[in-house]
């Protein structure tokens, strides 16, 4: 993960995690309800996670990564695009 993520305020980090979930979900071709079904969550929970409104537990992230077919370490192994870093600075 990008070194800047370590120094981010919690609210910005939650948004970053949500954007990562949405990116991977879309890459997999899944809707929010479909991902929710795969990890035993409702669409509203997935939406709140993707919007950065709630802080997911490690267990929730494990459920999501399993549903997406990736490991938890792969979930966190990414570079943050500069445009997202700029957006999170606001």
Explained architecture:
This protein is an all-alpha fold. Helix content is 64%, strand content 0%. It has six helices and no strands. Helix 1 crosses helix 3 (43-51) and helix 2 (32-38) crosses helix 3 (43-51). The two termini are 20 Å apart. The model has no long low-confidence stretch (mean pLDDT 87).
How would you briefly describe this protein structure?
With 90 residues, the protein is mostly helical. The protein is built from six helices and no strands.
Helix content: 55-70%
Which geometry do the CA atoms define? Answer: globular
Q: How is the main sheet built?
A: none
**Number of separate helices:** 6
Mean pLDDT: 87
Give the C-alpha Rg.
12 Å
Which stretches of 5+ consecutive residues score pLDDT under 50?
none
Span between termini: 20 Å
Strand content: under 5%
Q: Please identify the structural class as seen in this structure.
A: mainly alpha
Q: How are helices and strands ordered from N to C?
A: HHHHHH
Using DSSP, what is the number of strands? 0
């Amino acid at each position: 993960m990008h070194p800047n993520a370590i120094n981010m305020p919690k609210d910005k980090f939650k948004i970053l995690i949500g954007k990562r979930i949405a990116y991977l979900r879309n890459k997999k071709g899944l809707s929010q309800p479909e991902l929710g079904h795969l990890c035993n969550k409702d669409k509203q929970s997935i939406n709140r996670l993707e919007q950065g409104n709630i802080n997911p537990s490690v267990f929730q992230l494990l459920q999501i990564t399993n549903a997406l077919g990736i490991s938890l370490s792969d979930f966190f192994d990414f570079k943050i695009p500069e445009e997202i870093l700029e957006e999170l600075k606001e």
